[in-house]
Every structure is written in C-alpha cells, then in structure tokens.
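Title: Prediction job returns without error message
Component: structure pipeline
Severity: low
Priority: P3
Assignee: unassigned

Description:
Job completed but the reporter wants confirmation the result is attached to the right record. Sequence as submitted:
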Amino acid sequence: MSNYEEYMGSKLDNYVQEMKQQREIAESLKYASYIQQALFPTDAEISRLLPEHFLYFQPCNVVSGDFYFISGHNEIIYLAAGDCTGHGVPGAFMSILGITVLNSIISRYNPERASLVLNQMREHVMKSLSQTGAQTEQKDGIDMAFCLINKQNHTLQFSGAFNPIYLIRNKNILEFHGDKMPVGIGSEQEKPFTNHHVDLADNDMIYLFSDGYADQFGGKEGKKFKYQPFRELLVSISDLPPEEQKKQLSNTFDGWKSNLKQLDDVLVFGFRYHPQG
C-alpha cells in the first residue's frame, strides 16, 4: 500500500469516527430533550388550571435553559417562567434543578405568598450548587417570574428575579418589576424578594416571559427587538383569542429574525383570567 493510500485510509477512518461521535452526541441530546419535556407540564395540565392560555416556546437548541411551570392546590394556582444561566446543555441542567426545587417547595409547604417561594428557592439553589459568594466561583442562577393566583378572592401575587410580568386590562398595560437579583448567588447582598399584589378582573391578560424575544436581533438594521415594541405588540393582540395571539407572536418573531440566527431561548406564556374559571 502506498503512502497516499495509507493517508487516505487514515482520513476516511477519522471521518467515520467523527461522524459516529456526532451521531452519538445528537442522539444523547435528543434523549435529554425527552427527559426535559417530561418535566414540563402538558398542555392538558395547563388547560385544566388556566383554560384560556397560550405557550410560545422556541428553544434555540435541542434542550432549553428556559422553562415553564404550573401547579394547583385547592384554590391556588402557582405558575412560573424561568430563564437559566446559559442555554443548551448547561441551561437545561439548571432548568431541571429549577423545576425540581419548585415542585419540592410547593408540594411540601403549599405557600400562600409568592415571595416566600423565591426566597426558599434561592436557598435551595445556592445549597445545590455549593454557592458561597466567593469571587472566583461561577455565578449561575435563574431569572424568573413567579405568580400565585388565588381563585377564591381573585388576586394575583407576583415575585420576580429580574424578570417582570405584564397585565393588560382593556388595552392598558401594567408592568410589575422583578427585583434586580437572581435565584442563586448574586453580585450584591441578599435581601428578601418583593411581593407584589393585584386584584384581578374578568378578561385580564397576564404574560410571563424570558428575555429571548426582546433580545433577538433582526429587522433591517440587525438590532434587538427590544421591550417597548414587545409591550406594544402584546397590547395590540391582547383582545385576540390566545391561540391567535401565539400565532401573531410567532409570525412577528420570524419576520423580525428573518435569516439571522436565533440567539437565545424564547418563552412567552400568556393567559386570560376569568373569575368563574
């Protein structure tokens, strides 16, 4: 066998090995996505608690650093939209931790105050990641909007780690801001999360979301979509049926992004409140 034949044979072996490794990675990621999806609530579970809702969820990789959560106990509904540090595999690991901790806190304590959930969740996350506040350690955490709805007195409590929520009533938007600290170790001194309270009215639309939609680059100048246009878009579609709102959000996002790469996971969770529901 000539040196050329040996060289080409070696190249072919390396190519076959590389393709095999890529296939195994792809299969592993696909299986990981099944595990992550199994932890998310099904559409039937969401519909049972919030019959009039939509979920616009577009991971930028096979697995996602964004997650959504809903649970009900007696007259209380707990729901959350989370955005973990990173996306892809690292973000997915964090999302699984976030969902697991949320389930544990709610099933164990049935809390009646939204901010207490984030306070307890922060302690669990810091303990799980062995975070001590040292300058050299990784500042992994979760940005999150967490809501507690009391169907008996028609109130909503909100507590946020960076992320806000929007409430749209008769085409008027109310924004409830999250605290500027994550669920996890932060750069500043820890303090309790703020608990916001609002009385709900029939037909209120409430939106929880990550930053992926507003931060996507696109348009003629390749700039971020930004939050002001995002708010204006939500107000303009707020009176539409939820599934139509989802369609409008999807079409606008795809049109804005065009041929550019999606940079982050995208999550928008909206629902319409009805007292009798």
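Comment from assignee: result matches the submitted record. Helices lie at 3-39, 43-49, 88-109, 114-128, 227-237, 242-257.
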